[in-house]
Amino acid sequence: MSTIGILGGGQLARMLALAAVPLGARVVALDPSASACAGSVAQVLQADYDDQEALARFAEQIDVATFDFENVPAASAALLAGQRPVFPAPEALATSQDRLSEKSLFTEVGLATPTFATIDSLDALHQALEHTGLPAVLKTRRLGYDGKGQARLHRRADASTAWQALGSGRVPLILEAFVPFQRELSVIAVRGRDGDFRTWPLTRNWHDHGILALSVAPAEVSATLAEQAIGHARAIAERLDYVGVFALELFEHDGRLLGNEMAPRVHNSGHWTIEGAATSQFENHLRAVLGLPLGDTRLVEPCAMLNFIGQMPSRNKALAIPGLHWHDYGKRARPGRKLGHATVRAPDPARLQQRLAQAAQGLDHPAHAILAQSPAG
Amino acid sequence: MSTIGILGGGQLARMLALAAVPLGARVVALDPSASACAGSVAQVLQADYDDQEALARFAEQIDVATFDFENVPAASAALLAGQRPVFPAPEALATSQDRLSEKSLFTEVGLATPTFATIDSLDALHQALEHTGLPAVLKTRRLGYDGKGQARLHRRADASTAWQALGSGRVPLILEAFVPFQRELSVIAVRGRDGDFRTWPLTRNWHDHGILALSVAPAEVSATLAEQAIGHARAIAERLDYVGVFALELFEHDGRLLGNEMAPRVHNSGHWTIEGAATSQFENHLRAVLGLPLGDTRLVEPCAMLNFIGQMPSRNKALAIPGLHWHDYGKRARPGRKLGHATVRAPDPARLQQRLAQAAQGLDHPAHAILAQSPAG
After folding, report:
1. What pLDDT is recorded for position A375?
2. Fewer Cβ neighbours under 10 Å: the N or C end of chain A?
């Protein structure tokens, strides 16, 4: 039986472990936390990501390694790769860990990005604002997620506050123009060890306080735009010789696509694929890293995904909503923490809108306010 | 978090445990075997089903109990029911454990059965053959499954051999007329604690050497026949005040339905619901026993299910077949043992037939010979 090692034992590892069981594979996760939520369905080795001795023991237990979390120290990924196959490869991980190399890659493959500049001093920040204009977003180049490591600048006078908030240059920073995009989209893509490349139908995403709140698939986009998005994802995957699932997050701005960032792992905006696609992102990630043939990524039925942040709604109330599927990550509630999600599925887009509205309202979910402003589609 | 205790730790418990995780529930199984395959995803308490001390410890760890296996001693189910809610209730389990009380129940709800007679002597067997005619099947009233505890009689001269093969009256026996049925069908049904009753689309089944080999859903039956089948399942569920999933196995003979047997648990012929229905039989069984609202049982896409008996085919070969989903139970190979199954799903019945034929042939599965004789539908 194949054993897949996962660096990180959060909900992504948990859902990967659930997908591994029917495939006749098992998961061992390495996580610093004693209460990593993958622990209900997988063995968890509790250790820090830079604990070399633990990484060596981890490597001995597994056939292949992958990630639930991209901010693993590059040295740890490299150490592991010395002992076992690691997918995606540490080089691909490194590229997506740094917003500068990520944007350079986007540019190389012809994917436009918001105007950006690296920032190493407060003076440089002031100068860069000339190029990006306002508003703009100052971000740490590394280790950011869910809106963490970011500060928005609305006026030139915000520069020094933002500079200080992100550590006054103690970590590398990047300034990005804020794009008044019309829509946020993501491509969930997978590439096999043999180079086979597939994408799921495009997903439209809505964030709330910097954290994904709602995804709807398929996104209503023109065939041209969808082809462009898929083409960019394919070019990135091939450039990186990528193996496994990744997400490419895009802004749609005046009919053009801009590259926001990529996540080198299964992605929150692809959770709907469990119910809505012929093969889920979790199963295909496992198939890819195990060197098995990839599964069909076609849409089976349209879906909407609602994230539960900070607290779970009533399970009883939720399960009474037609077409709703419940995903409790078994985590302790904490403000701002992703505790679970629900996928609402329907036989057609019209009924999906009805069910999504019913779920958003019935569960008092931020999607209710989001949909009031911009109907899904 | 709710903990569901399951008596039996086989593949049904394993698939129930997989469905429990997203619902925020967990499973503890009690099984006599040290290598019960539910152990990969659930805690397993190794003990005999009649170990009263172990049952008491088991009861302390769980909120509610259910079954992966119906041949649990009635006394053990009753003992457990004294400490925790048990679904289905021990009385319902007892009815379906005995082929005589099961057939009496069928008769009560207006479901015809093959002609039968209880047998307590070789003389009685000879007399009963006058009523049933030949061929006929002598069966143990209790503890039969997968063709075990059965002997077929083709000639009157087979009577004494069959009588001896089934223990010469040491266990209660029943003789049933062999019905030259056209089709075997099953209704997978679920009833909630609140009496909510639902069925999945009818399934057509094919057996090979007494073990289920192939199921196709939805079965192509007239609306009238489907309504009759569902009506019988509903009447049985209500008569037993049944809670949870059960299967009602039927023969279709000259346009009429005959009751074969019922299985008081999730059922092999309902495995296709994981991929093919809005809610799987496993999730709805858990929803029922936990007192949660039941999920939608509608068909999402037509499916065929191939059982793997005695040995698993090549995983690599199987996963290359379009629309094929792999379910390895993680069991050691042994002749006649159910080791796993594959579900083939397609957007429409025509493509399902193509894919099923491809899978049956490519995996050298008994379904290949079955389909050559009687095309699915």
Report:
1. 59
2. N
Q: Determine the pLDDT at residue B70.
A: 85
pLDDT of residue A1: 83
Q: Is residue A278 within 8 angstroms of chain B, CB to CB?
A: yes
Q: Is the distance from CB of A293 to CB of A195 less than 8 angstroms? A: no
In 3D space, the residue among B286, B301, B96 whose CA is nearest the CA of residue B190 turns out to be B286
Q: What is the pLDDT of residues B139-192, one digit of tens each?
A: 999 876 666 788 999 999 998 999 999 888 888 999 999 988 999 999 999 999
Residue A51, C-beta contacts closer than 8 angstroms, at least 6 positions apart: none
Question: What is the distance in angstroms between the CA of the first residue and the CA of the last residue of chain A?
Answer: 43
Q: Which residue has the tokens 């068909």?
A: B299
Scanning A203-348, the segments in alpha helix (DSSP H) are 223-239, 273-276, 281-290, 315-319
Q: Contact A199/A230 with Cβ under 8 angstroms?
A: yes
Yes or no: say if A117 and A175 are a contact pair by the CB < 8 Å rule. Answer: yes
CA angle A218–A222–A226, rounded 5-degree value: 65
Assess A41–B contact: CB distance below 8 Å, yes or no: yes
Q: Can you spell out the DSSP letters for B37-82?
A: GGGGTSEEEE--TT-HHHHHHHHHH-SEEEES-S-S-HHHHHHHHT
Question: With 90 as the cut, is the pLDDT of residue A170 above it?
Answer: no
- A–B interface: beta-carbon pairs under 8 A: 76
pLDDT confidence of residue B295: 98
Q: Which domains does chain B have, with CATH numbers?
A: 3-86 (3.40.50.20), 115-177 (3.30.1490.20), 183-373 (3.30.470.20)
A91-148: per-residue pLDDT in tens?
999 998 899 999 999 999 999 999 999 999 999 999 999 999 999 999 999 876 666 7
Residues in chain A: 377
* pLDDT of the residue at B147: 64
Are the beta carbons of B328 and B339 closer than 8 angstroms? yes
Is residue A193 within 8 angstroms of chain B, CB to CB? Answer: no
Tell me the β-bridge partners of B49: none
Tokens of A60: 């001995």
Q: Which residues of chain B have pLDDT under 50?
A: none
Strand-pair partners of B32 = none
| Cβ contact B24–A330 (<8 Å) | yes
